[in-house]
Design a protein that fits this description.
mainly alpha, elongated
Length: 131
């Protein structure tokens, strides 16, 4: 039994939407968690940021930005701006890790950046196919 082209396209769109939604939840949970950790001011994290020249308030601001981005990703009208802000934040984090010789610490931002770009691509594809 063979499926017609329309059915195949519907299945493909549904699978892409499902993967997009899973990535959305993972990205949001991760960003929300990291944002709250920074906002609370976990001492080890604050010390690490201080070694890079960041003040306690800057750590708090980055955490607030991460928390805001995680919420923005769920709101369709602002999602593209949240994605752009997240990409900028992750490129900055990656640059900081590399600049200070913390190559192992760069793995996290690279992984999240990859997931963010995959989410962005899937979101664009799914939204363009919605009838």
């Amino acid at each position: 039994m063979s499926l017609d082209n329309q059915t195949k396209k519907v299945i493909e769109t549904n699978v892409m939407a499902s993967v997009r939604n899973i990535l959305l939840v993972i990205l949001c949970a991760g960003m929300m968690g990291m944002g709250m950790v920074k906002m609370v001011g976990v001492p080890e994290l604050v010390e690490r940021f201080a070694e890079w020249g960041f003040t306690r308030w800057m750590v708090f601001a980055i955490g607030l930005l991460e928390l805001s981005i995680s919420i923005g990703l769920f709101i369709k009208p602002v999602r593209k701006y949240a994605i752009l802000a997240l990409v900028a934040l992750l490129v900055s984090a990656l640059s900081t890790h590399i600049l200070f010789g913390d190559e192992m610490g760069a793995i996290g931002p690279v992984a999240v950046l990859t997931g963010t770009l995959a989410f962005w691509w899937l979101d664009t594809k799914v939204e363009s196919k919605v009838i």
